[in-house]
Design a protein that fits this description.
By secondary structure, the chain is α+β, with helices and mostly antiparallel strands. It contains 5 helices and 8 strands, in the order βαββαββαββαβα. Strand 6 (about 115-125) and strand 7 form a beta hairpin. The radius of gyration is 20 Å and the shape is flat.
């Protein structure tokens, strides 16, 4: 029997941190299933999903805790059941506009108020040399409940985009690919 573990990791970035985590995982017989890792403001930060034999969970936790001597904090959480509700569908949201505080707050509030779950969110600020200033870009994979139409969601997001002065695109290709 195996157990899913989710690792949240953070520490000063330096070479070898992924290797240190992978060494501990391999020593416990864990399978590295997926991860999102990045250097954010000089800090190594990420999340890792491991599948580990139940008998090795405590051994793995102890090995990961030992990484704190190297400045890497690892928080371990047992995974739960996953998956979208049967009536949910996946949509892709892409956004770009002049950077300013509050964009994520406004967009996430609109989604939350309609019961839309953000399955994955990636954001970045980039030089907008052609537009002048800094551009904010976001890409999100959304789980949209069956009682929220794509057109309704598109309309409310486009209305908010006008207020925020950003461009949004809601792509149904994910929904169509899931149905195929």
């Amino acid at each position: 029997m195996t157990t899913s573990l989710i690792l949240n990791v953070v520490g000063p970035d330096r070479p070898g941190l992924v290797n240190a985590i992978a060494d501990q995982a391999a020593a416990a017989g864990a399978n590295w299933l997926e991860s999102r890792l990045a250097n954010l403001a000089g800090q190594f930060a990420g999340i890792v999903h491991l599948q580990v034999p139940e008998a090795q969970v405590e051994t793995l936790k102890a090995g990961l805790q030992a990484l704190e001597t190297q400045g890497l904090r690892v928080f371990v959480t047992q995974g739960g059941t996953s998956g979208a509700p049967a009536a949910a569908r996946l949509l892709q949201l892409d956004l770009v506009g002049q950077d300013r505080p509050g964009i994520v707050k406004e967009i996430s509030h609109v989604l939350y108020s309609r019961g839309v779950s953000i399955e994955e969110l990636t954001t970045e600020c980039v030089d907008g040399s052609m537009a002048g200033g800094t551009l904010f870009r976001a890409s999100a994979r959304l789980q949209v409940p069956g009682n929220v139409s794509t057109e309704e969601l598109r309309h409310v997001l486009e209305s908010l985009a006008n207020d925020l002065m950003v461009d949004v695109a809601l792509d149904v290709r994910l929904d169509q690919a899931a149905a195929a």
